Amino acid sequence: MKDLIDPIDLSVEDVDTILKLAGKIMADRPAYAHVCDGKKLATLFYEPSTRTRLSFEAAMLELGGSILGFHSADSSSATKGESIADTARIVEKYADIIAMRHPKEGAPLVAAMHVDIPVINAGDGGHNHPTQTLTDLLTIHETMHRLDNVTVGLCGDLKFGRTVHSLIKAMSRYENVRFVLISPDELRIPDYIKEEVLLANNIPFEEVEQMEDVMPSLDILYMTRVQRERFFNEADYIRLKDSYILDHTKLLNAKEDLKIMHPLPRVNEIAKEVDNDPRAVYFKQAEYGKFVRMALIMWLLGLDK
Ligand code: NCD
Predict the structure, then answer these.
(1) Does 7-128+289-300 carry CATH code 3.10.105.10?
(2) CATH of the domain spanning 131-285
(3) How far apart, in whole angstroms, are the C-alpha atoms of residue 119 and residue 127?
(4) C-alpha 132 – ligand 1 centre gap (Å)
(5) Would you tell me which of 7, 32, 225, 257 could form a disulfide with 166, CB atoms 3.0–4.6 Å apart?
(6) What share of the chain is helix, strand, coil (3-state, %, to 5)?
(7) Ligand 1 center from residue 305 Cα (angstroms)
(8) pTM
(9) How far is CA 195 from the centre of its chain?
């Protein structure tokens, strides 16, 4: 049984299949309205979420399936001390596929090791977020018509931002991709991403602190929120939270066809004035998240034939 725990569990060909299917779904939604009739998706969310959980649920409902689950650890038996493995074993009896978000790195992998139904990692701590990556890849594909030959600026909390880690892993497999990593010194990309992904694959990258200097070179600017919940110390969060605020002035020397992305939620890192800039694609990106999750659910359940 297939699972999706790490973005590179999917080969480049698998990603291609899923993105193409998402494209077909967007072009003819009624044709997919009953593909998952009788199937159930369990959303096990031990950590808050708006887009990811609701887009998973909307995706399954739109495919004709049903949903069950919980949206905080407090409303699950985790409060009584039940292990992830036991919860997963039970949910397997009630559902056909699981999407799990958890503050601990590796929790969805533990679940996947104990059940025979597909498990999707919907975000595990500061580690990975493979379905956000599929959302990001669909957004890039739909708005730029390519996944190769791009300079991607990643800005903000590159240390704890799981969406950034997963996007780098996935995009490093396409030709001529270059990364510009923009962060304060304390929130730089973890060494394991630098060593095991970027250096190991000879991917060009640079690390900078100022976004203005690198702006003209970027094809994509991927903004991220400083991940307050992963800080040990509130004072550090407060000091770093407004390190970057993207506004009209900062975009003055950006490319005309730049794509401004953000996994959302945004806090302060993109000024509202940017929302109306035609280069801002972050709300569209959230919409693509539902379609790509529809395609993923179909693919994992073997219903894409
Ligand atoms: C992201 C996450 O949960 O990692 N949100 C999302 O799923 N769209 C980004 C974030 O919370 O900052």
Answers:
(1) no
(2) 3.40.50.1370
(3) 16
(4) 8
(5) 7
(6) 45, 15, 35
(7) 31
(8) 0.97
(9) 21
